[in-house]
């Protein structure tokens, strides 16, 4: 009896399970089981199209995404300044502006580090000393103690003073100096650069525009490593910041409202920001033993530093790679050993970038001069940024890594790689169209786009229009196959051939009935007979 009841219970359980499974299948949409095609491409663009949307389609060119992929004869669709689609067989809306880039190459716009404020005729960053002195003067009056820092006031106020807010307000006031009509900006765009770092801020080079220029605060915190005293002071700052964070986390975990919060007096706020992962520590160093010291400091406290210079990085590349260093190098820099009697290696090497990259270091290339210079030392400023990357290739760096060294890697260093640095769905449409390899010295930028809008056109500018002129790249309203340009030629409407019998034959054209037909040879009697000499006739 118990066995029968047991079987009956199991049977009921099986029926209930089967009923539940059928109910779940009925509630599940049929398309959920089907594999999604091109899931990555369909992930971002989910918004509903409206009449106000602005589309730009670049068709027919070779798209170098900056991630290692090259799409030949592909299409890139831009919607409201953002990349919406990249690939082949992409639907193009009728209202789209179509750029016919057949025979050209499309690259992500380069990102120039350490650019001079001359590019934008101003600076968007406030000086640290000015901000601190301004806060102190505002809160304490003219007789403020010079030894009292912003951190002291944070402690005395017993509140979380956001120093970044002060910097943002100062940057906003200084942004009035930005000149969107700067001729130096035109030259920088002509070099293939669409973003620059100026005064530690990542900026877009938008012509005739003032909005959406600043992309962020840069995320870098500068530390001094130039002297023994500076090195000891920086190491002590990180030691105190690490101890404070341990105490703060323990206090936070305890949850005791009666306990007093750990004091921040004398703690470097920049070191706290780095150890919390809210920014990256940036150092300027070239000599091998300085580079080793920075790498060991970073490994001790668990952060990934940025090192500007890194001339002798090739000597200690493995240690820098283990520390997660990002190196900003100048491949054309030449510096011999400071002392030829030194036993170990020293000085610069053209293979520096290649060796660092091989050891796992993120390598960014910058120009030797952050200005755009038309009267000084030519070829060592921002106009030659691509040539600097080409020198890294000459030293053994791969072309793909060299392209990333002037695009996505500097964007990562500035904390804006989610916006610029590569051509990917969802990123800003900052790109250039060139007539050859971007890193080749003879290549010219034909068009530069920032947020999907034309910021530079070679044929329309005074500086480069006369150098190896090419037909203008056709931009049409909507896709017009009859006007599609190929191989860089300006498209012209095709000549329509008349259908048979539609147009009368020209007067000087022989009529069909007057033309001899095939096989109709002239009769022998109609042919002229050769004259026979009299001697032969006799």
User: How many distinct domains?
Assistant: 3
Low-confidence stretches: 1-46, 122-167, 482-502, 504-513, 532-538
Instruction: Return the structural class.
Output: alpha/beta
Helical region count? 15
Separation of termini? 145 Å
Number of separate strands:
17
Shape: globular
Q: Main β-sheet: number of strands, strand sense, barrel status? A: 9 strands, mixed
| CATH superfamily membership of the largest domain | Urease, subunit C, domain 1
Task: Kindly estimate the percentage of residues that lie in beta strands according to DSSP.
Answer: 15-25%
> Which percent bin holds the helix content?
25-40%
Provide the CATH architecture of the largest domain: Roll
CATH class of the largest domain: Mainly Beta
Q: Could you tell me the mean pLDDT?
A: 77
Computed over alpha carbons, the radius of gyration is 34 Å
Q: Give the CATH topology of the largest domain.
A: Urease, subunit C, domain 1
């Amino acid at each position: 009896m118990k066995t029968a009841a047991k079987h009956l219970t199991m049977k009921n359980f099986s029926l209930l399970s089967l009923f539940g499974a059928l109910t779940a299948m009925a509630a599940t949409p049929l398309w959920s089981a089907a594999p999604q095609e091109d899931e990555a491409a369909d992930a971002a663009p989910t918004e509903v199209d409206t009449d106000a949307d602005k589309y730009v389609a670049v068709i027919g060119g070779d798209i170098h995404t900056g991630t290692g992929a090259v799409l030949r004869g592909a299409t890139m669709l831009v919607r409201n300044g953002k990349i919406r689609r990249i690939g082949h067989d992409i639907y193009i809306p009728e209202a789209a502006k179509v750029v016919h880039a057949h025979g050209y190459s499309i690259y992500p716009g380069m990102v120039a580090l350490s650019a001079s404020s001359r590019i934008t005729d101003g600076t968007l960053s406030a000086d640290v000393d000015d901000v601190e002195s301004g806060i102190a003067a505002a809160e304490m009056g003219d007789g403020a103690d010079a030894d009292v820092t912003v951190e002291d006031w944070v402690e005395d106020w017993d509140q979380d003073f956001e120093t970044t807010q002060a910097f943002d307000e100062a940057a906003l006031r200084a942004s009035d100096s930005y000149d969107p009509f700067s001729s130096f900006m035109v030259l920088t765009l002509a070099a293939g650069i669409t973003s620059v770092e100026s005064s530690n801020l990542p900026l877009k080079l938008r012509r005739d525009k003032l909005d959406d220029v600043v992309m962020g605060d840069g995320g870098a915190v500068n530390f001094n490593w130039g002297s023994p005293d500076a090195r000891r002071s920086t190491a002590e700052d990180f030691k105190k910041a690490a101890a404070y964070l341990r105490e703060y986390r323990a206090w936070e975990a305890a949850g005791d409202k009666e306990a007093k919060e750990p004091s921040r007096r004398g703690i470097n706020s920049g070191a706290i920001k780095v150890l919390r992962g809210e920014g990256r520590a940036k150092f300027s160093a070239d000599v091998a033993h300085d580079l080793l010291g920075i790498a060991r400091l970073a490994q001790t406290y668990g952060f990934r530093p940025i090192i500007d210079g890194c001339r002798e990085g090739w000597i200690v590349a493995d240690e820098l790679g283990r520390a997660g260093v990002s190196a900003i190098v100048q491949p054309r820099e030449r510096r011999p050993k400071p002392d030829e009697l030194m036993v170990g290696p020293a000085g610069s090497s053209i293979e520096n970038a290649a060796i660092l990259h091989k050891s796992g270091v993120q390598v960014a290339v910058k120009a030797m001069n952050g200005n755009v210079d038309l009267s000084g030392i030519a070829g060592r400023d921002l106009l030659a940024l691509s040539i600097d990357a080409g020198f890294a290739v000459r030293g053994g760096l791969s072309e793909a890594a060299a392209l990333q060294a002037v695009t996505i890697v500097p964007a990562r260093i500035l904390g804006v790689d989610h916006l610029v640095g590569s051509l990917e769905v969802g990123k800003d449409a900052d790109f250039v169209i060139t007539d050859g390899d971007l890193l080749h010295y003879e290549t010219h930028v034909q068009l530069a786009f920032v947020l999907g809008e034309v910021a530079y056109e070679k044929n329309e500018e005074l500086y480069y229009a006369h150098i190896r002129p090419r037909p203008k790249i056709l931009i049409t309203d909507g896709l017009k196959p009859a006007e599609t340009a190929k191989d860089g030629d300006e498209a012209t409407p095709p000549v329509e051939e008349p259908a048979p019998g539609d147009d009368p034959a020209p007067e000087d054209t022989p009529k069909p009935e007057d033309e001899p037909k095939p096989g109709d040879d002239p009769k022998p009697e109609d042919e002229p007979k050769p004259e026979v000499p009299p001697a032969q006739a006799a």
